[in-house]
Design brief:
single chain; 312 residues; alpha+beta; Ribosomal Protein S5, domain 2; Alpha-Beta Plaits; 2 domains; 5-stranded mixed sheet; 34% helix; binds adenosine-5'-triphosphate; binds L-homoserine; ATP binding
Length: 312
């Protein structure tokens, strides 16, 4: 049996709508992402298990992981032996944590290893983005590439090799809080303006390029001071109960930034100390999340998708 783990990710990373994303690693050591197990079998068999399996459609053909298997067999490795493929669905659906990306990335990475197809990195990323696009309403890479490669990635079709790794301040803590209800990505995209003015486009480009150059030259505090989301937050905050209150309360507890993770409803903070992160987490646990939600204090996951031994 081979097992692959794919980590949760923060799409947009505040200043990089559809273009910047970061993979998350809880400091508790807990796995926050999906796991895919593959082994040889007499006939192709698909099983969906894990805490969020019952939130997915019951039919295998409606599950992205199974669709990835069918595509892989038909178009990538027709001579691959039959497999038992199990998706351990460990991330909630419509969370803003890149849940569908996790399933797609873990499945293709596991199948690529099992069948020894040795697809190039760019071939794999394109394949993964095709499937993520099926459910999210648009083709974007900002969950796929951080989930696959780890770290913070500037990522788009016109970026060389689809992704450029951006250095980060290793002192930063990220508190990710999933409030316990789903927000469909396609719905969260439908509230965004279809067109932007030239001044908005220019400011977006200025902010994102300055942020990346400042991070590249390790001027992390200046980069942090530029973090503002004019592209999505003004239109999406109303879809996320409690977000506005969190945005007011958390800076008083030490958050340097409060922003929406991906399409929401997960929010994330950046804090410079563990103590501030713990204070933010305590507030979020009390006021932001319901009985189905959770929060984690995280660092970035620099390993990305990887083989794990059973029981890790
Ligand atoms: N393995 C899977 N993982 C996640 N979603 C799946 C999977 N298979 C099918 N789906 C469907 O894809 C859709 C995913 O919706 P959506 O893009 O909002 O979720 P998401 O990927 O969790 O979002 P986000 O990227 O914000 O975390 C849902 O309708 C879900 O039922
Ligand atoms: N960049 C995407 C991420 C979706 O998780 C969006 O904000 O719609």
């Amino acid at each position: 049996m081979i097992s692959f783990y794919a980590p949760a990710s923060i799409g947009n990373f505040c200043v990089g709508f559809d273009s910047l994303g970061a993979a998350l690693a809880p400091i508790s050591g807990e796995l926050l992402g999906d796991v895919v197990n593959v082994k040889a079998a007499e006939q192709d068999t698909f099983v969906c298990s894990g805490p969020y399996a019952d939130k997915l459609p019951g039919e295998a053909h409606e599950n992205l992981a199974y669709q990835c298997l069918v595509h892989f067999r038909e178009h990538v490795a027709p001579s691959m032996p039959s497999v038992y493929l199990e998706l351990e669905k460990r991330l909630p659906i419509g969370s803003g944590l890149g849940s569908s990306a996790c399933s797609v990335v873990a499945t293709f990475a596991a199948l690529n290893e099992f069948a020894q197809t040795n697809l190039s990195q760019i071939e794999l990323i394109e394949l993964m983005a095709d499937f993520e696009a099926k459910v999210s309403g648009a083709r974007h890479y900002d969950n796929i590439t951080p989930c696959y490669l780890g770290g913070l990635q500037l990522t788009a079709d016109l970026v060389p090799n689809k992704a450029l790794s951006v250095p980060v301040d290793s002192d930063w803590y990220y508190v990710a809080a999933y409030p316990g209800f789903a927000l469909n990505t396609a719905k969260a995209r439908s509230v965004l303006p279809k067109q932007r003015s030239s001044s908005e486009a220019i400011e977006f480009a200025q902010r994102l390029s300055s942020f990346c150059l400042l991070m590249q030259t390790e001027q992390f505090d200046l980069a942090l001071s530029l973090m503002k989301d004019d592209m999505a937050e003004p239109y999406r905050h109303a879809l996320i109960a409690g977000f506005t209150q969190a945005k007011t309360a958390l800076p008083k507890l030490g958050a340097e930034l409060v922003s929406i993770s991906g399409a929401g409803p997960t929010l994330f903070t950046i804090c410079k100390t563990k103590q501030a992160a713990e204070q933010c987490q305590a507030w979020l646990n009390e006021y932001y999340i319901n009985e189905h939600g959770f929060s984690h204090i995280c660092k970035l996951d620099h390993k990305g998708t990887r083989a794990i031994s059973q029981g890790e």
